[in-house]
């Protein structure tokens, strides 16, 4: 049999990338990135120019198709591989990134009559405007003692499906009515490749983002009735569709899409997946005790376990949600790289930009270089990493960032170092929450853009968590994981694999160099972490709700 290949397509927050992978050993033969032409839509809608409210984040579904028709042919061309030898394709996506579709499976925002309504567009994972609905979901679920609530760390996030669907119903009932279904973008893109009229939903997004459970299904009609009588049958109507396990073949590539993507009709297409979750087998993790951090704009933390435990503020525990046969745990920080980007774009003085340009490096690299000269604790600064709210463990999108300890001598690189440290403390909260609740964390694995870009950051994470960190060898770990699922969808008979465990064994790699904790740094960071924890609880657990009061004052001032 000739060499076989699969393609993984990773849909990030600002771009999509395709990677063509050799199935014998996981070599990434070619990759290509397509930036989304419309990027994140957070100020005004395309064409109509309708202004968006604060906390909104939308996307254009056509951008996702462009990734398939640009990046996939590009990797096929660059590799010189015969498309007949590309036996499977898998995708992974940000989530919950959801959209309303019509009976024909097309996004409502494609209909000219609805395009000026912001609710007809894709709501990106970081759309945070459904907080009122999320707060009510949590109050009502807690008062009814709903069994699903502990599985989500006690709180359902405003980033997730039910809050977003309810926001649509409240603010645009006509869009809710006209929507044949609400769908994760990952499932929609798969349906566009397979051309199936029957939508296939994947168990990962259904479990983590739509409160679906392998045994119990969605929450009961009684629960939805208690939320809002208009939602009573939402699970049977707008969320209908078979939920199938990761690695399942969703269908086969249609002739029309095969032509546009430069592939062969009939290529196996795996059911959709989440970016962070696909990265777990991508880094070779298929057993418990190993926490995988997908580090980029945000961080998602994934961990496997054998028993269902309650962990404060985790995003969820889903049976088979990451690797079949295990309970998959997820937690996260909704801004990490985004915080560093904010500082680089909004906070640095002109002399830093000039010095970086003169040295031929970017501003991040300049700040990292200069921040590395400081010892832990030497800046005298401490920050709370809540620039985009707190996903775990507080699950509160209405919290904001804070930096303490400024003086007239404070330097930009000290602030940058403090922001790196703050995100590491946020991760430490998550590691401690799992470990102290019986879901052991022995080792850390890191993938995504940040580990490659910033060594200081990784050393700080090792010191703050006091754990060794292994780094993925692949620069495109979620895409590699997605390609593995594509190979599983194709199956061993066709030259793929019968299970994701088999695929990971052959195809995943970590680098030889690891980041090990340095004892003297660990000791200082332990002290700083205790201070971080005090601030965290003071501003985050209700002792002082000043952040929320400032938000209300801001809202009043804006209207
Ligand atoms: N040298 C750097 N150090 C720290 N963060 C960086 C550096 N360069 C870029 N970033 C951040 O990396 C993030 C992008 O991460 P990446 O993994 O490439 O993307 P995504 O999360 O969209 O998949 C941005 O938020 C950016 O601010
Ligand atoms: O919540 C998620 C996964 O569960 C999002 O997909 C994620 O936070 C966005 O990730 P990225 O940093 O790759 O843009």
TrEMBL record:
Residues 292-490 form the Carbohydrate kinase FGGY C-terminal domain. Keywords: Arabinose catabolism, ATP-binding, Carbohydrate metabolism, Kinase, Nucleotide-binding, Transferase. Its EC number is 2.7.1.16. GO terms for molecular function: ribulokinase activity. InterPro entries: ATPase_NBD, Carb_kinase_FGGY, FGGY_C, FGGY_N, Ribulokinase. It catalyses: D-ribulose + ATP = D-ribulose 5-phosphate + ADP + H(+); L-ribulose + ATP = L-ribulose 5-phosphate + ADP + H(+). It is an enzyme of class 2 (transferase). The keyword Transferase applies. Belongs to the ribulokinase family. This is Ribulokinase. The gene is araB.
């Amino acid at each position: 049999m000739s060499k076989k290949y699969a393609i993984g397509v990773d849909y990030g927050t600002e771009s999509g990338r395709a990677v063509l992978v050799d199935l014998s050993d996981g070599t990434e033969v070619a990759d290509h990135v397509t930036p989304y032409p419309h990027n994140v839509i957070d100020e005004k809608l395309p064409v109509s120019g309708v202004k968006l409210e604060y906390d909104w984040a939308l996307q254009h579904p056509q951008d996702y198709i462009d990734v398939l028709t640009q990046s996939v042919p590009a990797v096929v061309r660059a590799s010189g591989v015969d498309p007949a030898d590309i036996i499977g394709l898998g995708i992974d996506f940000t989530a919950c990134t959801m959209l309303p579709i019509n009976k024909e499976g097309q996004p409502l925002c494609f209909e000219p009559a609805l395009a000026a309504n912001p609710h007809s567009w894709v709501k990106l994972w970081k759309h945070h405007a459904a907080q009122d609905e999320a707060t009510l979901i949590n109050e009502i679920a807690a008062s009814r003692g709903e069994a699903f609530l502990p599985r989500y760390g006690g709180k359902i996030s405003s980033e997730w499906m039910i809050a977003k669907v309810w926001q649509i119903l409240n603010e645009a009932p006509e869009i809710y009515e006209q929507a044949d279904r609400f769908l994760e973008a990952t499932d929609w893109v798969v349906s566009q490749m397979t051309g199936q009229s029957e939508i296939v939903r994947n168990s990962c997004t259904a479990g983590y983002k739509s409160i679906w459970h392998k045994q119990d299904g969605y929450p009961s009609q009684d629960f939805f009735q208690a939320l809002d009588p208009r939602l009573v049958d939402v699970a049977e109507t707008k969320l209908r569709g078979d939920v199938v396990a990761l690695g399942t073949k969703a269908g086969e590539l249609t002739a029309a899409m095969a032509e546009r993507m430069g592939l062969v009709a009939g290529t196996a297409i795996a059911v959709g997946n989440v970016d962070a979750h696909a990265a777990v087998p991508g880094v070779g993790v298929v057993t418990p005790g190993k926490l995988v951090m997908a580090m980029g704009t945000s961080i998602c933390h994934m961990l496997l376990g054998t028993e269902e435990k309650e962990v404060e503020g985790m995003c969820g525990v889903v049976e088979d949600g990451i690797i079949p046969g295990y309970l998959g745990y997820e937690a996260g920080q909704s801004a990490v790289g985004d915080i560093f980007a904010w500082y680089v774009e909004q906070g640095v003085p002109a002399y830093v930009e000039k010095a970086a340009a003169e040295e031929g490096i970017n501003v991040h690299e300049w700040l990292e270089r200069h921040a590395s000269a400081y010892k832990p604790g030497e800046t005298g600064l401490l920050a709370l990493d809540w620039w985009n709210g707190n996903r775990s463990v507080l699950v509160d999108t209405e919290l904001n960032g804070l930096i303490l300890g400024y003086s007239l001598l404070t330097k930009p690189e000290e602030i940058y170092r403090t922001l790196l440290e703050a995100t590491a403390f946020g991760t430490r909260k998550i590691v401690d929450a799992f470990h102290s609740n019986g879901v052991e964390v022995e080792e850390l694995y890191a993938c995504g853009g940040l580990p490659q870009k910033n060594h200081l950051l990784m050393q700080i994470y090792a010191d703050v968590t006091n754990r060794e960190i292994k780094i993925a060898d692949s620069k495109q770990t979620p895409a590699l994981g997605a390609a593995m699922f594509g190979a599983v969808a194709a199956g061993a008979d066709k030259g793929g694999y019968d299970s994701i465990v088999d695929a990971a064994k052959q195809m995943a790699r970590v680098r030889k160099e690891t980041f090990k904790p340095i004892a003297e740094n660990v000791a200082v960071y332990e002290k700083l972490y205790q201070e971080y924890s005090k601030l965290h609880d003071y501003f985050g657990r209700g002792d002082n709700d000043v952040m929320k009061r400032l938000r209300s004052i801001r809202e009043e001032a804006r209207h």
